Amino acid sequence: MRILLDTHIYLWCVNDDRKLSKAARAIIVSATEVYVSSASIWEASIKAGLGKLDVDVNELVEAIALSGFKELPVTARHAAMVRQLPEVHRDPFDRLLIAQTLSEPLRFLTADGILGNYSELVHVV
């Protein structure tokens, strides 16, 4: 199974946070490929700049490879897919991550229950 991590799931992985459930950990460990979107790094960078997130963004970038994960760049196809999404969620970062999920396709691992309304590809943990 190929999965894309929601931003908060990735942050919990990097920080070995207890918020990351055993079920989520098991999915990540058993996945054949685990992706982190460049949109997640963008989101973390913006939130860190606003003081809403205490994180070293350069360490987040480095942690992608150190974790054995793969970076998923944002493509024009991903950006265009956002327009086709229903207005289930208004957060632009989440909408872009869902667009990437549907475009690739990948399974999307999140703790945000609202995002589960987009597709059966969204796995809420």
Distance between the termini: 16 Å
Structural class determined from secondary elements: alpha/beta
- How large is the share of residues in beta strands? 15-25%
Order of helices and strands: EHHEHHEHHEE
Largest sheet: 5 strands, parallel
What is the molecular shape? Answer: globular
**What is the number of E strands?**
5
Tell me the number of helical segments per DSSP (H or I, 4 or more residues long).
6
Task: Report mean pLDDT, rounded to a whole number.
Answer: 96
Low-confidence segments, given as residue ranges, are none
How would you characterize the overall build of this protein?
The protein is of the alpha/beta class and about 120 residues long. Helices cover about 45% and strands about 15% of the residues. The protein contains six helices and five strands; from the N terminus they run βααβααβααββ. A five-stranded parallel β-sheet has the order 3-2-1-4-5. The longest helix has 12 residues.
Provide the descriptors you would attach to this structure in a database record:
single chain; 125 residues; alpha/beta; five-stranded parallel sheet; 6 helices; 5 strands; 46% helix; globular
